[in-house]
Fold these 4 entries.
Entry 1:
Amino acid sequence: MKGAFRQSMAWLHTWLGLLLGWVLYFMFVTGTAGYLDTEIDRWMRPELPVAQYPLPAGGTAAAAISHLQSVAPDARRWGIQLPIDRNEPYLHVTWQASGASAPASAWLDPHTGASLQARDTGGGQWLYQMHWRLHYLPELAAEWIVSVATLVLWLALLTGIVAHRRILADFFTFRPRKGQRSWLDGHNLASVASLPFQLMISYSGLVFLMFSLVPMIATAWYGPGTQAVRTFYGELFPPMAAAKPSGERAPLVSIEQIIRDARQRWQGEPVAVIDIQHPGDANARISVFGNFAEGPVRSTNTLVYDGVSGALLAQRPARQSAPRASRDLMLGLHEGLFAAPVLRALYVLSGLLGCVMIATGLVLWTVKRRERAVRGRHAAQAGLRLVERLNVAVVMGLPVAIAAYFWANRLLPLEMAQRAQMEVHAMFLVWLLLFVHAAWTPARKAWKVQAWLAAAGCAGLPLLNAATTDRHLAHSLLAGDGVMAGFDLGMLALGTCIAAAAWRWGNKP
Amino acid sequence: MHCRSSLALGEQAVMLSLATVFLLLGLAALSFAMDRHAADAPQAMAGMLAHPVWRRVLRWSGVAGIMAALWLCAKEQGAARGVLMWVGLLTPCTLLVACAQSALRRQVVRAGGGYSSIRSDQGAHSGQ
């Protein structure tokens, strides 16, 4: 009985993994890149100076306000993100003009309030957002694909644990150069070594999607229809002291006063975000948020002030209820925004192991069936040939495509129209070409060629950086610019590792 | 997050390094307490590992090392972050021990380890 259960779980694990493996690999690679999103942002905007944080809030916010007053005095809404940690390393302002559709934004010098110019690029943010938005797909389609993939990941992890017969005895087992056994050992080791992370990341991913995955729970209490949904969300995220614009002008209260008051109420905890509704109106509202990346629970204190008198109108503490805190803990753990450098490095390692887990699983499926075909002396089925080639294009092709994204960032002309979108198109165009290459090339050769491309693409980035900007490695190391130097060195290391692997494959018969 | 003095950072580095060392030693001890990896143990340890009592001591020492690492992480970073740091550190330490055991196995096989190679290929009757 036990054997049959384990076998059926193994069967389910195999088919779930195969069907959604490629999508999950894409999600894991972009998600892992997301743990270094603002570092990638900074490498992709070499015009921006080295970030300084944390900075005194009062002066920085005042500089932001004076800039906003000069560029968008009649805006409906201003947003100010203060540089307090690596999550938002620059003074960043946004504004939404009345009637305009998209908000505009700018990075500012924290001392003078002057706008900092940088090339038009999506940076690390767009790469990270593909983790749940994918690309070129309508929002709803992407949401459903990602939801199903996340559910499949959760099931694949659970069935994998059940199917792994000797999970404790095989804990430290890795037997290289033994074909299928080695691939299974690698798959098991990568998964088990990072198992707490994998379980957390898939469950918390489901929590992120819970309103889409299980909407009927809200429906059971609030009824069907859009009005019911609106009521539900209105109760979950109630507006605080909201007011429509009155139409009469009134000067905005001093932001330093507001910040002083907030910090006093929060016993010195920092102000991270300021949101101003209807600035310059008699009904202006200033919302002040603390740092929601302070700890693993992703929530923070909120204060809402009258924008003219400075009186406190509403407040909401970070902790509101146990269920909410549980959800905020899940979201906080998933995003890892609170992680300091060492823990962040461990997050990146675990993310990479997730990529290895999926990649080894996909390759194992083909190796097993290829060995079976060789033993049985029959031709490989079309399905096996398809999966073998798709594996190359996805597992090795995606890193090449992401490297192409970084190459495009340095090579595309700065004045190009739609420059940011063109960088992303370059990434997917290169990926498409690699799919075509994999389709026409025997799998063994395709692995080697695409691996060398990945190695060159990554290791070449520091050279490209030196050739196209003055923020090259020597300069970064001398100036103590950890982010620029870290990216260049990291890419060099990654390229070298991939080159070493490609060399080993090249020497095999 | 606020800037910490370089002294505090140095102290953090020492504590985390110590926790990592404890984790590595603890996981290594656990691995040698298993049949499969005990068979590849260096000569100096082989005698000890033949006795079930010493195996048990090794197993419990391994657990103690891992718990000591948890205590160090929690002491340095507070309960919540400490647990997360410890869980995170388990990953590279597990990988390192696994790779070390794999290298040890290859060395044993290359040296012509006859009996031990037969024993470990029988797989696990580890009594875990």
Entry 2:
Amino acid sequence: MRRLPVYMLVDVSGSMIGEPIESVKSGLQMLVSALRKEPQAIEMAYLSVITFSSQAKQIVPLTDLASFQLPEITANGCTELGEALELLCTCRDKEIVKTTKEVKGDYSPLVFIMTDGIPTSDPSEGITRFRAKKWGVAVSCAAGPDADKRVLEQITPECVIELASTDPSSFAAYFKWVSASIVTTSKGINVSGADADGLAQLPPPPPEIKLV
Amino acid sequence: MGPLKKISVAIKRGLSRLLHRNESESVKADDIVKRSVEPDVAAHPPAAIEELGGVRIEERGSSVDEQQAKDVPIPVLPSRIRLSPNLTLGKEPCYIEYFLTGDIQLDQEEYLSNTWQARQVEKGIRIVPKAAGELDIPIYYNNGACVHFELTVNPDIDSLWQKNEPGPNLIAFDQDLIRLKTGHKNILARDFQDFQLIGASRRGRSHEHAGAFRDDELGYWADEATGRYAFFVADGAGSARFAREGARIAIRYLEDKIGSNVTEALWNIADNGDTPGGEVGKMLVALAYHAMCQIDAFVKESNTEDPNRKWSLKDFNTTLLIAAIKRDEDGAVRVVSFSIGDGATVGYTGDRVEIMIAPDIGECCGGTRFLTMPSVWKKASEDWTEFYRARVFSAHFTPAEAKKLWLLLMTDGVSDPWFETESGLANLERWRNFVDMELLGHGDGQAGLDSSSKAETNAERLWRWLGFSMATHYDDRTLVAACPFGEGAAIGETTVRHGTNDILTGGNDL
């Protein structure tokens, strides 16, 4: 069975304490609930959540939508984005099934990265490793005015989006768009039989989200 | 007997035993265990959903009296408890039981709401969801505590899949001519002396849900007197607006032209060793090329008729599989195949799998080539040998093999779920399972093809079977099969059917 793997990278550094992290939690929950209404997403989409602050942790391994449960998330610490990218690549190597002569593997994974600040230590190694791999769709989101857009442009040059603020409605719009993107991608894959090939297929972002 | 066995035995004995559980069958309170119960559902249709299997969670806790006796402060129950795993409507497990060991009880026997129900079981609670969603279930205990149980309930996925008709936007966009030619169902059925031809083509879940058209097509030609036959299958590209018309034009053209072009004389010219398929193979290539030209002519004609259309050959992208067959007087069978695109053309005799296709799948998934791609034909001019080698195959079956031969052409909507990869296609075991179980088996979801039934009956069975449900496999399904039902078939009966149901009347979708 060919799965559509989706990795969510979420900044849980100290600056997210309070309303922002609550918005992220409810946003993730809303994302999962929305996907659960689409039969194609339910059967194909597998979701993983990697959080990063002073450390990167895969708090939910690649899991089918029906079984998915979001654990507690607390915000604290700095912003090790580079480590998150390295962890993402490690998880990908471990979890993604490759196509071989015997078996048709997973579709190229989708990645949605979100941060509200500046990486604490140099993320270059993580970025290099990330860019060396093939992703179906890779999107970075700069949450709020303090986020480092230039770093994100190095990670996902094809698509960086920006939330004007870190208020709840902006986060809600972001997660809603991510959910629509996943559904559109899963439907597109079924039509063409091919991997998601970049962003031409994604729905247009709502007004709260600006393309950078 | 372990506790798990006790519970499943209890269920097997009858539903009433579950309601009146006696002491000897209750689970030992000391055990902290999470279990899933799998009852024998077929034997005991459930009177209530909760009588099917569930999940049982036990936690150590203590009663008010125990605490007071030990002179220990009364523990506070957590105000929220997240239950695990998530449940799915229509699937086992369908309830969760949560136990606190000791004497803590619910403050009432039963709780009811629109979306869930809960009741006291032994010394715990059984929660049965009735609707999908994120459930928040407040339960009161007799020590005054209120616990909110959080439970995620997934919807029954079959209830989410819809069957929709193409909407007015799709039909108005089209020309009437195209709309009326396409139906959601097409069937081939013909009884021959030595074999039975059946074929069926239907929409997959993706097109049904989206309210789109069937993009696959099938066809055949036969002249039993000279032992010449031909089968065709085409898979219109999902991304091409009029893909189904491309598939249809190609196949109708081939049905019309193949008889007068792949003649007996052509079959009689012996293969030379280097080019398997010989003259017949070359003729199939020529016919495919002309089929492409037919589509191109239709595009140009349509654009002339209405310059606003601006249609292109790409809008009609389709794959194409052809199998030309010659049955010799001694009963031997020769097959020459041609293909552009994915899918499968295979001869199966029970002992041998003859793969007659090298599917175009490009470097990574999704590099399918199409009949209508000029680059494919350009390649034919640039490197004819390579083109021919990749697209024309030839096979020979002895009279004994021919008696057991299944010749099948299918689109990837059938080959992907059942064979997955090229090596899957070459796997004899998979074929045994596919033919003996899926096609000939009479079990649930199997086609039940029967050598003593007429072609039309078997074709309907095939069509029904093609509706098989398999997660992530939503493509249109098409299969043409020459079945070795010669001896048992109703000889002398020839029923030919090209069923194209008008979609406006809803078709015969089952």
Entry 3:
Amino acid sequence: MDTYLKKVRVLFIIFFVLLVGGFSIWSFLSPKKAYSDMENRKLETLPKVTGKSIVSGSFQKKYEAYLSDQIFLRENWVRFYAQMQCFLQKKEINGVYLGKEGYLIEKYEESDFDKGLEKANTGLLADFLNASFQVLGEDHVSCLFVPSKVEVLKEKLPAYAGTDSGEGIIEQVKKKVLHENRVVDLKAALSEHEKEYIYYRTDHHWTTLGAYYGFQAYQKLNGERTPEVHSYQRETAFDDFFGTTYNKAHVRTKADEVDIFHTDSEAVRIDGNDGEFSSESFYFKNAAKKGFDRYALFFSKNTGKIIVDTEAHTGKTLLVVKDSFANCFVPFLSASYDRIIMVDCRYTKTRIGSIWKEYPEITDVLVLFNDTKFRQDTHLSVLKFRPEELEQEKTEEKPEESEDDDDSEEDFLDDLISLD
Amino acid sequence: MVFSSLLFLFRFLPVVLLLYYLAPRRLRNFILFAASLFFYAWGEPVYVLLILFSTMVDYTAGRAVAHFKEAGREKGAKLAVLCSAVINLGALGVFKYADFFLSVIDHVPAVHIAPIHLTLPIGISFYTFQTMSYTIDVYRGDARVQKNFITFGAYVALFPQLIAGPIVRYKTVAEQLDSRKESVELFTQGILRFMAGLGKKVLLANQLGELQKTIFAMQADSLTMMAAWLGAITFSLQLYFDFSGYSDMAIGLGKMFGFEFLENFHYPYESKSITEFWRRWHISLGTWFREYVYIPLGGNRKGTGRWILNIAVVWGLTGIWHGAAWCFVIWGIYYGVLLAIEKLFLGNLLTRLPGILARIYTLFIVVTGWAIFSWLDMADSIGFMKAMFGLGKAGIADRESMYLFLNYGVILGASVLGATSLVSSLANRCLPENTVRREIASMVFMVAVFVTSVACLVNLSYNPFLYFRF
């Protein structure tokens, strides 16, 4: 018995040595990666050894980060961790709720937001809307806020989970705006369809169906009809979409489907950033790389300015101030406007004022934001706009005009830039 | 460096084990000493000099004491011990308590010295106590002087217990330093013990820590009574698994190198009195204070008045040893008072109560004690204490408290179970110790624990960049 026991122990020691030693050696020898697709970031590489970095401890920190980033089978370890968390009946992993029916729902905490930034953004948006009211009139300006998944899919959240986010911000915008009925919180409209597939399970965006309901609310606001949901010919462009939320918490769940709602008015000409790219369709199947980039089906990458020319012949031109949520929404508008000018605040190189001046045919304005992203956006200064700017035709020749000086210089440079 | 890191598990430990077992026996202490210094220097590239200094001071003091004693010069020996104590406590005082002392002095009007903001050298509370124990033990004749500097250095810096204990008194390992025998049995025990400790730290303590951080960050208006107690209990469990996990890893690593350290924890949360609790929690610290402070002061052999004073001194010091802040002093005195009460009459009463009541009493005192202990980590310590005792603004329970409880329910359940000896007893009954069945079951279980722990460690650095959010 004793020698048998000893044999078992010896075997175990050998096993331990092979396991730990082998893994260590393999980790040491295996090729190092510079970039992680799974994490969408650069991975740490072997840090340089310098006296200073050792004494300050920065070499040690970097080396440990390097070891971690380059550990053999890193992706498998991360997935295993997620599985373990599920096994332990955790209700959230890495800030993502594990909801019912396989929904991964990002959670937000008050600490994710900065009240100062929120206040500034509210002001910038309200000022822009008011200026737009002045130029175009009350009925031609709209502002839609798309709620985040966590606020709408309340029934799919784990028990007792909840989040207090965003309620206040829309009220604050409404308070500062001249015609508060033109600022719409889509939460009510979307909540009616809570049980339907209106948000992706694995991504923070709304689905095309969700965007349809948003479109419905928009049409209602403007007293227009909405085509029945069945009147669209639906095509599932991809059925293997694992979006941003999946990237945060690698929990095995059902893949998402990205749908196209085909209409009769799909023949369009699209121009991105004044010639950077162009297309005759809203849909960029090749740009939507496998994995979490499937949402790029709509208008491909994030672009500062996109011009969409349609065959609508309504005489109306729409300026859309947006974030990525509008990408699957805009195709619904192709029958309502001759031209749609989409401006993404995060990527645009010019201010709204300059763009508006460049396209004086604008008859309507739509601001479409996700409320959570709006609270955190740091690029809204591009919304600084005064109606008078549109009348400054001869900016370069005008002599010193008190406060407008800076603006005119910027416009001048912008004009230079837009020349090919 | 910490044990629960990929660096330690897959770089440092394999290399050190390899070098150690390839080397001839006479070089092994040197390898341990060198490796331990490297281990320490990795986290403290500058303060490694301090530990070397401390080692040299006590090596010299030890030789001096032995020399004086041999020559019959008691006074000289006493002086050497005194020097060692002064220098060690001085270093500890400066690096750990300077700003605390200064803040106390600040209350005297017209005196103001700006805080010096020295960073605390890791492990200083542990290794200074260890080196002092050596000098005193040599003086008392409890241990023979160590003439080999390398061997002594290995004792002081031994990486298994350098950072977080257990505090190993020299006389416990004196013989093992020179003539330990590594063996298959010891090595296997070591591996299993180490993996158990790693699991306690990474799978239980770290996860409980997430919950603890969330609750401790709450302000008074969200601290329901449920949340406060959940937070205190979670912290109590977290601290136990963190600390005892570390001790397990230390003991396990010791065994891998042929050392047998004393146990540091023995299911403390099963205690039936505070007196018993302090014989089961951080045993090496209690032993140290008893041996080197309580007994020299006279213990309980100099009348009740002096006895109470001794308890006050020992517990005040125990408190402040844990950290340079008033909450630790209060915490220490809290226990001193309770221990005195138990010794005077409560202890007797407790033995006559049913076990379950005695345990509830003990846990109540202990959990409340840990809440006091962690005031520094709380966003709103006053609000927290109020909430615990029903005086908070937020009521008894709310959605968030329920959510947190459910989210961590399984982990909390596993932790509570793991803190008791139930699993161990059950295992001993179904799988008797030292049988092949038992060994294989332990090995399979521990390897599973180990693999899961590694997954957690890798996930710590998982940081996806979601550009859509920017």
Entry 4:
Amino acid sequence: MGVVTDSINLWAGGVRTTLALTILSFAAALPLGTALALARLSPALPLRLSGAAYVQLVRNAPLPVLFVVAFFGLPKAGVVAPPFQTAVAVLAVYTAAFVCEVMRAGVNTVPDGQADAARALGLDTGQMLRFVVLPQAARAVTAPLGNLAVTLVKHSSIAYTISVVEITGVADRINTETARPIAAYAAAAVAYLMLTIPLGLLVGRLERRLEMGP
Amino acid sequence: MKRLIDPSGPQARPRTLVVSAASAAVLAVLAAGAVRRLAQRGQLDADRWELFFSASVLRYLVGGLAVTLQVTLMAIMLALLLGIAAGVGRVARRDAVRWAARSYVELFRGLPVLLLLFLTARALPRLGFDAPPMLHLVLALALVNGALLGEIVRAGILAVGTDQIEAAKAIGLTDRQVLGAIILPQAGRAMAPALVSQLVSLLKDTSLGFVLPVEELLRRGQITGEYSQSPLQAAVVVGTIFVAVNVVLGLAARRLEAGQRHRGGQPVSAAGNEELVALTVRPGGRGSVHAG
């Protein structure tokens, strides 16, 4: 276990970077994805179309390709962004598309009768969304969002391809220096599992508490 | 579209037009701004892009796409084997089998493909297992996706409904007969859209092979980009090809899902979550089932 103890600072930095990537991207993806969902539900055609185009494009593009496009493209479009910020932006943009779809699916689980009842009570669309639909949709949405967060932890590893040193990057560096790949990468695996397994259990518990029966 | 939001009334219609015009204007301005900046730096010059439409480059890239598809096919088949074993294993009678299946799934669900790729490509040779990089990619993809497919298979099996199982046992079928004749055919139909969705996800992950390197599409795109000093253009072209292929696969998935509903079954939904690991499955039978 020398591989772990000798470079404990490196590992700590890697875990911190992974967490930072995940938390920042998720925090950005939530409002962005919700806005996209609202755009896709909007009566205004440009909003609906651009929302749909965004989601289709981003969902079907491989994340490594998006990283490469951003890494080379942003400087050439005049946006100066160091690798970490670029990675957060790409992960946020990517995850937002999936957040949007989860939100749309969540809104669809609310029975039609709720909208009818809201209408009958005289609520306009905005009030209906705010007070009737979205609170109920929140139940259906929580578990899939939790799973997106777990997935995001795993996707943060791809940031290493644009030279952000997170957990996978640390393992790779240690392997290069000590030539002990099994130990190094196994340690990284343990680090990821320490993040993903508790998060997954939390999501499972949330899901059971918000039990969505037929 | 859903009836949640009624067609606009007389007050909302002009408001909608205003919002439409405003949002269209904002989007146009943003797009124009980006286009101008790129053009200023010569990124939109014809000669940078022409290269990618020449026959030799296209043939080179298509060769990469062929490798991508090859890897995808091999990985999905191996992942299906692992996934079916894991899914069936999780609902097995014997505790040891259930435990083994659960351990496999929980372990590989939580690991990134990139890390597993490094593990197989750099650690396995140390243990004497040497293979071309492409097989390392296939192995890594299969292990992770096998775990994810295992969850889908489990959801599909549980969705068939306990009443069917009870009925089958009542007329005297053995456990194996119940599995083969009753559960798996119905579960298979229910799972098909989710499986195609996972296939799309796997295909996208093959692009990680460029780190090994495996001569798949992204790698070939990068080489072309370096050679022509147009890395951005290369990435955009490669991205477009990927999107096109996945859109086609996605359309196939939607057709499968529609066909499934038409036959009266309940598909394991592919909406909203590329890894499908905790969607609420609404079974035909009793009880609420969670594929998590």
